[in-house]
Design brief:
The complex is a heterodimer of chains A (about 600) and B (about 220). With about 600 residues, chain A is an alpha/beta fold. Chain A has 13 helices and 22 strands. In chain A, strands 1, 2, 9, 10, 11, 12 and 22 form a seven-stranded mixed β-sheet that branches. In chain A, strands 5-14-15-17-13-20-16 form a seven-stranded mixed β-sheet, with helices on one face. A two-stranded parallel ribbon of chain A has the order 3-21. In chain A, a hairpin with a 5-residue loop joins strand 11 and strand 12. Chain B is mainly alpha-helical and about 220 residues long. Chain B is built from ten helices and two strands. Chain B has a two-stranded antiparallel ribbon. In chain B, strand 1 and strand 2 form a beta hairpin. In chain B, helix 2 crosses helix 6, helix 6 packs across helix 8 and helix 8 crosses helix 9. The longest helix of chain B has 16 residues. The radius of gyration of chain B is 20 Å and the shape is globular. The chains are: A alpha/beta (about 600), B mainly alpha (about 220). Chains A and B meet through helix 3, strand 4, helix 5, helix 9 and helix 10 of A and helix 1, helix 5, helix 8, helix 9 and helix 10 of B.
Chain lengths: ~600, ~220
């Protein structure tokens, strides 16, 4: 019997695994997707290889790319962007690691306290999470981001709107700032050259400004895996977990098994007892017992696994309350180069507490063109679809196709893209359930994802419109030649709260320790555990802080251990002891 | 809404166990496969030839990214620089559609059937140089087809993702990417159109730190 089985090696599961491995527990981690052990070999910079939604290595599918991706029933125009594999969606994320908005928590007493989703707050005050934020920020580490051209221009725009600079990590007012992100700051030649002979480790360290966050970060070439620039859990927490016996005095290395799709959590009627999984390569079904089981399969697969396991759902909230930040994009065609395809995905942001946030975003040309053509608002000049969404001075609202697309894309490095992330309400109607339209696949009934785009709450719609207006104003203030608002269908790159923790047993699945209310010894440690959309900021850091807290609760409650946060200093994932252990002992399976 | 006469098809007898492990476009295919209104298109797909599929999807590529090609001329919107037809992605598009829906005999054929059927509705007396009606539509008529898709529940997922996926293919490296070697065989058309400098392991782009702030307070 294991001490702990963690299902899912993504942004949250890897954190629980590393923390408990450091305490000496025997931890088994199951990951449905590929191992991604050698990122310099596994990944490259080509969009076709990485981002092809069906055949790319960043897909929600099995390790064997000759096999099709896994099914999801999505009965509407929607892009749900998640990927399988060790590291999960942190492999293609942009590393942005802001803290949550304090107003998303209980006990918030700010002047704007009425501006939030008051019915679905975190069940504890924001200050409770701060020590856990600090622990994760030191571990990854999270640092203040440098600027590329697009950030320098974006900050000029923010200043022209009269916004102040946010100087601390906590969000206290509407303000702009460089991202706090989990990307190592550039050193040496990094960010200063495109000469391939000069940007190898150790001459180059940290972010090389290659512009390929979305294809996975394996830069600088030649760097040990735990010194790759972007701190996906595949290069930070997982290497730490695999070498826990080498850098923690009482640590025990985890067992990591990829290509292992969990299909059932087994209970004795009261407590979780074991996990059954399917080996992708052979189809073999295996079961192993554990004292505690932690689900971290993501906002879709965690409720799917719960429902497929026949676990209780007395209040009906399993899979419900999906928040997605009601994302939109406003793009400005600038009269000068802003380096859209160069540098990190996003190193600048504006937070509007109570409304959400804006980020300046760059990416590769295929992804950008696809995003320009993905809209729920028709074709400019021809028709709209009746979706709420004002122009606010934008030249177009809707899909960019035809000559509009060609014109916008005629110099991709002149596009200043502002992504909108709305502080959206937890709504019962937006959900993950089991599909009744399709037969089960080899892992059981398949998940169905639904977001009622035209029935969002008034506050959610208001917030998105506010942010769209601000984005247009900013681009106009910078002299954009044209401004396009895309007005997207659900473009789900942030998803949360489908297994939410909450104040009330009537509308939440988890208690305040992230243990399931109806199944003991069963915890959840991915974005689905979040109580809400955390007010709009990128959710990964908050999930990781919460997962750290969950690990501590597990250790105290079920293993008689002591808390360590506030008592110890975290070991950074870049520590030389870890680098050495990886060099000598490798990364295991 | 598009109102089509319902007709029996082989859908009910389709091997349901083949509804397995599918990808992004598959959600659109799944929506279609389960919608009663979509059954005529699934039937029509059997009669769509590979040439007609190719023409239809070339017409779609020209619609999303016009160029100097015959399909762009047929729609009345052209450009002097290359377009989607020149990007060498038609076969990638067809292959992706088919692979994404293994439970359908030819999802590319279904997509072509839908686009051509809606083309007939938009312009019943349509004639032109191509056997695929969609490829003969004018640009505004193609927009009308997209509008019909947006307004038809069974087609909303497809209408949403198809233009985006085509745009992605046209501006990505898809036209020159060799999956066997994981390298490019040439410069992608989309890169040239976008004046993209190409992939790199690093860039001379660092602009320093805002107000020299390297740490939050």
């Amino acid at each position: 019997m294991r001490d702990v089985i963690v299902v899912g090696a993504g942004g949250g599961g890897a954190v629980v695994a590393k923390e408990l491995a450091a305490r000496g527990l025997d931890v088994l981690v199951l990951e449905a997707g590929p191992r991604f052990a050698d990122v310099e070999q596994d990944w490259n910079h080509f969009e076709s290889d990485a981002n092809h939604p069906f055949m790319g290595y960043f897909r929600f599918g099995p390790a064997d790319r000759a096999q099709p991706a896994w099914v999801r029933d999505i009965p509407q125009s929607m892009l749900f962007v998640q990927l399988a594999g060790v590291g999960g969606s942190t492999n293609h994320y942009q590393g942005n690691s802001p803290r949550a908005v304090p107003g998303a928590f209980s006990g918030y007493a700010g002047a704007d306290r009425q501006a939030y989703d008051l019915d679905h707050l975190f069940p504890f005050p924001y200050r409770v999470l701060i020590p856990y934020y600090e622990w994760v920020e030191a571990t990854l580490p999270v640092q203040t981001a440098p600027m590329g051209k697009k950030e320098a221009v974006f900050f000029q725009g923010a200043q022209r709107l009269g916004l102040p600079l946010q100087r601390g990590k906590d969000i206290t007012q509407a303000a702009f700032r460089p991202q706090e992100n989990a990307i190592l700051q550039p050193q040496g030649t990094a960010g200063k050259t495109s000469d391939p002979h000069k940007i190898r480790f150790p001459a180059a360290q940290g972010c090389t400004f290659c512009g390929h966050c979305s294809q996975g970060c394996f830069e600088p070439l030649g760097a040990p895996i735990n010194l790759k620039a972007k701190r996906s859990t595949s290069v930070s927490y997982i290497p730490m977990a695999l070498t826990a016996d080498r850098w923690s005095t009482e640590g025990k290395a985890i067992t990591l098994v990829a290509d292992a799709f969990a299909t059932r959590v087994n209970t004795d009627g009261v407590s979780a007892r074991s996990v059954t999984w399917r080996v992708g390569a052979t189809g073999e079904m295996l079961t192993e017992e554990a004292v505690v089981i932690v689900l971290a399969c993501g906002t879709v697969e965690t409720p799917r696994l719960w429902l497929n396991s026949g676990l209780p759902n007395s209040n009906g909230w399993v899979g419900r309350g999906l928040t997605d930040h009601y994302v939109d994009v406003v793009t400005g065609v600038m009269p000068f180069d802003v380096g859209t395809t160069r540098g990190p995905g996003s190193n600048g942001r504006i937070d509007y507490p109570g409304y959400g946030m804006l980020e300046v975003v760059g990416d590769t040309p295929g992804l950008r063109a696809g995003l320009c053509a993905f809209s729920d608002a028709g074709v400019p000049g021809f028709y709209d679809n009746g979706l709420p969404g004002g122009a606010y001075g934008a030249d177009t609202v809707g899909r960019l196709i035809g000559n509009d697309l060609k014109e916008a894309m005629s110099h991709v490095d002149r596009l200043l893209n502002i992504d909108i992330f709305t502080d959206d309400d937890v709504e019962f109607q937006n959900k993950v359930s089991l599909s009744s339209n399709y037969p089960p696949d080899e892992h059981g009934p398949v998940p169905r994802i639904e977001i009622l785009q035209r029935k969002r709450s008034a506050r959610t719609v208001r917030n998105r419109e506010f942010l769209a207006q601000k984005a247009v104003e900013l681009l106009r203030a910078l002299g954009a030649k044209k401004v396009h608002r895309i007005n997207k269908p659900p473009f789900v790159i942030h998803s949360h709260s489908t297994m939410r923790l909450g104040l009330s047993a009537s509308d939440s699945v988890l208690d305040r320790t992230c243990e399931a209310r109806e199944v003991k010894r069963l915890f959840i440690a991915d974005n689905s555990a979040l109580a809400n959309g955390i007010g709009g900021p990128n959710p990964t850091l908050t999930t990781q802080a919460l997962a750290t807290r969950t690990a501590e609760k597990i250790f105290q409650q079920y293993f008689g251990g002591d808390a360590w946060i506030k008592k110890e200093s975290p070991v950074p994932s870049t520590d030389a002891a870890i680098t050495h252990a990886l060099a000598v002992h490798g990364t295991g399976t | 809404m598009v109102h089509l006469p319902l007709a029996d098809t082989q859908l009910d007898s389709m091997p349901r166990r083949r509804f397995l492990r599918v990808g992004l476009l598959t959600t659109a295919a799944c929506a279609l496969a389960n919608a009663p209104l979509a059954r005529p298109w699934l039937t029509m797909a059997h009669a769509v030839t590979s040439d007609a599929i190719h023409e239809t999807l070339q017409g779609l590529l020209a619609f999303i990214v016009p160029g100097p090609d015959a399909y762009s001329h047929a729609q009345g919107v052209t450009t002097s620089d290359p377009g989607g037809v020149d990007a060498n992605v038609a076969e990638v598009l067809i292959a992706t559609l088919d692979l994404s829906a293994p439970f359908l005999p030819s999802f590319s054929g279904v997509v072509a059937a839908i686009l051509n059927d809606l083309a007939h509705q938009v312009h019943p007396a349509l004639a032109g140089p191509f056997q695929a009606p969609f490829a003969n539509l004018t640009y505004p008529e193609k927009v009308a087809v997209l509008q019909l898709m947006d307004a038809t529940e069974a087609l909303q997922a497809l209408g949403g993702i198809l233009p985006a996926f085509v745009a992605y293919l046209c501006y990505s490296d898809a036209g020159t990417f060799d999956p066997a070697t994981r390298t490019l065989t040439g410069t992608p058309v989309g890169w040239s159109l976008a004046r993209y400098s190409g992939v790199s392991d690093g860039r001379d782009e660092l602009q320093g730190y805002f107000h020299n702030r390297r740490h939050a307070d």
